[in-house]
Amino acid sequence: QVAASKAITPMHTGLIKSYLGSFALSILVMILATH
Question: Which of 4, 5, 6, 16 is 20 to 30 A from residue 32's alpha carbon, by CA?
Answer without folding.
Answer: 16
